[in-house]
Amino acid sequence: MHKTIWNKTLILLMVMFLLLLAACGGEESSEAEADTEPAEETPDTEEEEAVSLGEASLVTNWFAQPEHGGNYAALEEGFYAEEGIEMSIEPGGPQISATQLVASGKMDFGYTSGEDILNARDKGIPLVAIGAIFQVSPYVLISHADAGVEDFEDLEGMTTITAPGVGYWEYIKKSYELDEVKELSYTGQLSTFIEDPDAVTQGYITSEPYVLDQQGVENNYLRIHDSGFQPYSNVIFTTEDVMEEKPELVKAFMAATVKGWEAYRDDPVKYKEILKEYNPDLTDGLMDFGAKEQEELIFGGDAEEHGFGYMTEERWASLQEQMLDLGIVTNDEDPTNFFTTEFLPMEE
Question: pTM of this prediction?
């Protein structure tokens, strides 16, 4: 009898001991959990860093020069990187077609003239202008100072050096009834013009007059814009496919490009070295001259009110009408098919 009571007491004590151990374990576990430091919060990288948009490329319409200064400024300042773009710029040249490179998908963005956008569209190549660097064309027709060329009618009988089939020359010939002109193809060199006192050559108001002055060749020029043919120049373009498949990239590219041009406008001297890296033939004098001459052509006009790169349907429709009238293009298209301002920052 006593043995039975003792066994029951022993079992009861063991159960109480086990319960006590379990309670202590629970407390230690709770303390361990309480002592664990909270995990570090993951930073909101979306706000601090741009989403990577990958690589993108731009091909310009000529060797690096002040007329491309804003894009090189954006590259130098890291504006493209801030937008998440790993950007590269390929300078153009006489044997490089920006429209072909972009149309083929080898490059994402390019520079060309408003005319070339319409020429490409007329051939079924779906290029779209997304911004215009020059509100007023920098193209001029340069003559010798003593040749007596004061207006477009005075070009009759002269030898003109222009790019073959270029729209503004076809317009001027028809509008000013120039029937007796000799035509030579423009090669980018000025030697033929310098040697012929009756020659007239195409050029940029931001470059060739300065180069000729430095060589002691007194010159005069007529602005193409004053003839009545007024396309946008140095148009920034891409393809319909890029716009449809990568709208974030196009928007980011234009945002960085606009910032770059604002930076270049504020201090063009700061970006001389990067321009020289891409074009060692540039001189300080030419870059100073170009930056000064292009200021009003880029930031004046509609850009003064609406911002860099702005374009209107009226200007594009007028250009298309002129090119249709000249028979250069045959496709009468809605202008909103080949230009847009939706990617410019001021449209937000």
Answer: 0.82
